[in-house]
Design goal:
about 775 residues, alpha+beta, Transcription Factor, Stat-4, Immunoglobulin-like, 4 domains, 6-stranded mixed β-sheet, 5-stranded antiparallel β-sheet, phosphoprotein, DNA-binding transcription factor activity, nucleus
Length: about 775
């Protein structure tokens, strides 16, 4: 039995809940006539919360529309005429509303099906005498909001009919009152006539009519006053429901979207539901506008017939003020930055941004296309703006080129937005620095401002929104510290803060999670718990740190901003963040694939590396990040007598010449990747292909640079066997050159081998440097 068949058999409240979940957003007629197709396709084929499924979702929605149109065409009986129109209207609505947002429609349908399934399962459990979990039956946020919007639409329709009936009653009262005035005029006229029996009879009839008319008027007046009071009470309740739903959409859902957008700046995956939020906001805008028009019409009717019951307060003016305030709040809150400007902004460098008004299409704002202006303001100016809700004219902290744009309406996506593609920060004014503050600690924000006209100029809204904090730099070497400021702000900014205040210290567990997320975003793999423990010992300058990274005690381990990026590491001239950032950059640019394959241990101390390798076979090696050199990775290996050696760290400059995998391949004394993986198995897929026969270009043969370690050559110079050129064995003594510095592990320098081979190329003797 299909789910829909079971759903139709539900009784009482359960059946009403099924009916309530459908509405304008997804008509129940569509569910009924396409039940088998919907359940076979949408329940199993696609995940509406996975952005990677969007292309497939678009094809499913297209097929749904085709099925719907085919079904409508097949309904030829006259009794299905209205249903046919309903299905055709639904197909057109799906095409206009969801062609650009197919996942949004599938999310709605999946919610409807999920609600049906939960209610059916609950009914089946109850029939079997099993208890169910009420919490499991709660619909998700999207479904609840759509359901509440449908309720508000229904209430708005009811008050519209009430208003129409009230207007008719008022017109009827006016007609009856006119009749009474005519009767009164006739009676007054009779008073001036000579007495007669005919006059007396006529006067008697008129007075009876007058009494009847006055009675009718009194009844109608009471009914009219009651209707006015009832309508005002209904509007009051509707406005309360609108206010609650709007608070949920704006203060919960939209604020959550903005927070997730900010966390995305640190690499947290961002599954934007902005199109769904726009749909909710558009629904609210339409409902608010219709109720506002009704309240204004009620005011007009009251002004036309100004009667009031004794001791009864006129609530309509207050309702008008309240509904206008709700509209103002909706418009100003839905002016948002869809695509943020770069948070580390270099002067004289092009950047982009995009702003959008979520209710622009529904309120026809695009009929008078609004202009948007962008300026950059300081942290102090942002504070002033929030307090006063306005900026002094011409006040800014810098000069931005191409900083104005006109919002455009895209009919297909129903989006009113403007994209700034060629902005450029030319100048910046900085505040005076205190103590250890640097220019990379200073935060700015881009201010987007506009003015919207609604209702043919009836209402004008001055709107503005601030970007996420921006750090302005003038040189590339300022980038690491600037990213530290941005990362800390994105991760630890608290809701409703004063711009742009952040805590001075935070729990290490939160810092570790932020670093892991950022590293995963840049390199493809997150940090392990072991990696995070090593980073904790590094950040707290305590190699013997043993505190847990999870559990109650972990919350007591607080890392300060100074420890994070201000204070140099012991015996180093760089900070913890600079060291971490350099390694993240190196891994992203040169080591991403090996890191994702777990061939690089990376975050491990020298002592632990030695302890692990000493237990392994000769030739076993490990790749770890250097403690002493920014953005360096070193190879540690075990030689004879279980002695461990460390190769001088390689940096980005080295890998730009020859890749890590090729360098590992060059060094023949490296045999096993820790613990016992043959190195060709671990790195073979990354080796650069090499053939002995090369076609010369412009009479030259391309040289091949080979890495070798003096004193560790395997000897031989035959290219075909892949061995090194001969190296003098006494050239380097592989004992620790830094014994005087107290280092136990020998550090070994690599070098480039250059050997000359002679070959006849085009009749000429050509030398190849290897």
């Amino acid at each position: 039995m299909s789910l829909w068949t079971k759903a139709q058999q539900l009784q009482g409240e359960a059946l009403r809940q099924v009916q309530a979940v459908y509405g304008e957003h997804f008509p129940i007629e569509v569910r009924h006539f396409l039940a088998p197709w919907i359940e076979s396709k949408i329940m199993s084929d696609v995940d509406p919360d996975n952005p990677q499924h969007e292309q497939y979702a678009a094809s499913v929605v297209g097929a749904l529309i085709q099925e719907l149109e085919s079904k409508a065409q097949a309904l030829t009986n006259e009794e299905f005429f209205l249903t046919k129109i309903k299905l055709q209207g639904a197909a057109e609505m799906f095409r206009q509303r969801y062609s650009q947002n197919p996942l949004g429609l599938l999310r709605i349908i999946r919610h409807c099906l999920g609600t049906e399934l939960k209610l059916v399962q609950q009914a089946e459990n109850m029939s079997l005498g099993m208890s169910s979990n009420p919490a499991a039956l709660l619909p998700d946020a999207s479904g609840e909001i759509l359901q509440q919007l449908d309720i508000l639409r229904q209430r708005t329709q009811e008050t519209s009919e009430d208003l129409r009936r009230m207007e008719q009653e008022q017109e009827a009262f006016a007609l009856e009152y006119h009749e009474l005035t005519k009767i009164q005029a006739n009676l007054t006229h009779l008073q001036n006539q000579a007495p007669s029996q005919q006059k007396n009879d006529f006067e008697k009839q008129l007075r009876i009519k007058k009494e009847m008319s006055e009675h009718k008027l009194n009844v109608k007046l009471a009914e009219l006053l009651q209707m006015r009071m009832a309508l005002a009470e209904k509007h009051k309740e509707t406005l309360m429901l609108i206010e609650n739903l709007q608070a949920r959409v704006l203060d919960d859902e939209l604020i959550r979207w903005k927070r997730e957008q900010q966390l995305a700046g640190n690499g947290v995956p961002f599954h934007s539901n902005l199109d769904s939020i726009q749909e909710w906001c558009e629904g609210l805008a339409e409902i608010i506008w219709l109720n506002r028009q009704q309240i204004k019409e009620a005011e007009r009717l009251r002004a036309k017939f100004p009667i009031m019951q004794a001791n009864n307060t006129d609530h309509v003016p207050a309702l008008n003020t309240q509904i206008t305030q709700l509209l103002s709040s909706l418009v100003t809150s839905t002016f948002i930055i869809e695509r943020q400007p770069p948070q580390v902004m270099k002067t004289n460098t092009r950047f982009t941004a995009m702003v959008r008004l979520l209710v622009g299409g529904k309120l026809n704002v695009h009929m008078t296309p609004p202009q948007v202006t962008v300026s950059i303001i300081s942290e102090q100016q942002a504070n002033t703006l929030l307090k006063n809700d306005k900026m002094a004219k011409g006040e800014a902290s810098g000069e931005i080129l191409n900083n104005t744009g006109t919002m455009e309406y895209q009919k297909a996506s129903r989006q009113l937005s403007v994209s700034f593609r060629n902005m450029q920060l030319r100048k910046i004014k900085r505040a005076e620095k205190k103590g250890t503050e640097s220019v990379m600690d200073e935060k700015f924000s881009l201010l987007f401002q506009s003015k919207f006209s609604v209702g043919g100029g009836e209402l004008v809204f001055q709107v503005w929104t601030l970007s996420l904090p921006v750090v302005v730099i003038v040189h590339g070497n300022q980038e690491p510290h600037a990213w530290a400021t941005v990362t800390w702000d994105n991760a630890f900014a608290e809701p409703g803060r004063t711009p742009f205040v952040v805590p001075e210290k935070v729990p290490w567990s939160q810092v570790a999670e932020t670093l892991s997320t950022k590293f995963r975003s840049a390199t493809g793999r997150a940090l392990t718990e072991s990696n995070q423990r090593f980073l904790a010992s590094k950040a707290f300058r305590n190699p013997n740190l043993q505190l847990p990274l999870v559990g109650p005690e972990a919350g007591n381990l607080m890392l300060t901003w100074s420890q994070f990026c201000k204070e140099p590491l012991p015996e180093r001239n760089f900070t913890f963040w600079e060291w971490f950032y350099a390694l993240m950059k190196l891994t992203r640019e040169h080591l991403r694939a090996p890191w994702m394959d777990n061939t690089i241990v990376g975050f491990i101390g020298r002592k632990q590396t030695e302890d692990l390798l000493k237990q392994c076979l000769r030739g076993t090696f490990m790749l770890r990040f250097s403690d002493s050199e920014l953005g360096g990775v070193t190879i540690a290996w075990v030689g004879d007598s279980s002695e461990v050696f460390m190769l001088q760290p390689f940096t980005s400059k080295d890998f730009a010449i020859r890749t890590l995998a090729d360098r590992v391949s060059d060094l023949k004394h490296l045999i096993y990747l820790y613990p016992d993986i043959p190195k060709d198995q671990a790195f073979g897929k990354y080796y650069t292909p090499f053939t002995d026969s090369q076609t010369p270009t412009n009479g030259y043969v391309k040289p091949l640079l080979v890495t070798h370690v003096p004193g560790w050559s395997s000897g031989g110079g035959n290219l075909e066997t892949g061995s090194y050129p001969p190296t003098p064995q006494g050239f380097y003594n592989p004992q620790s050159p830094e014994a005087s510095m107290g280092r136990d592990t020998p550090s070994v320098h690599s070098a480039t081998s250059e050997t000359v081979h002679s070959r006849q190329v085009d009749g000429r003797s050509t030398y190849i440097i290897l």
